[in-house]
Design goal:
3 strands, alpha+beta, about 15% strand, 3-stranded antiparallel sheet, single chain
Length: about 120
């Protein structure tokens, strides 16, 4: 179980603004830019707690590969992990959710991507 992890010192939780008040592309969080971590965050964003098994199946990865990425996100302070004994099962149920810092970082990442898409389509 996790105790309030500290945020990564090199994380950029908020999109930086250019002189026009728009998000700057320099705000891309390279840590989240990793496809596996991006997949995890995109599945966690609309939910509260998400079962580890759901994440594994939705992403199509192994337990060990997912565990490694979840541990990295937890160390960065982006997710919280909860392990509980299931009443019906003899094994523990692991669930994951975004922390406030993780949600802020992911929202900032998405805002930056939206800016890039708008630029590519001639909107900026």
């Amino acid at each position: 179980m996790s105790t309030a992890p500290e945020a990564r010192p090199d994380a950029q939780p908020d999109a930086q603004s250019d002189s026009g008040g728009r998000a700057s592309t320099s705000a891309i969080d390279e840590f989240l830019h990793t496809p596996a971590r991006l997949n995890i965050c995109s599945l966690l964003a609309p939910a509260d707690w998400v079962a580890f098994s759901f994440l594994r199946d939705a992403i199509g990865t192994s337990d060990s590969a997912l565990s490694k990425q979840v541990a990295a996100l937890e160390q960065a302070g982006y997710v919280e992990v909860r392990k509980e004994r299931s009443v019906q099962a003899l094994r523990r149920q692991t669930s994951v959710r975004l922390t406030a810092a993780g949600r802020t970082a992911f929202d900032s990442y998405l805002a930056t991507l939206e800016l890039l898409v708008a630029r590519a389509r001639g909107g900026l």
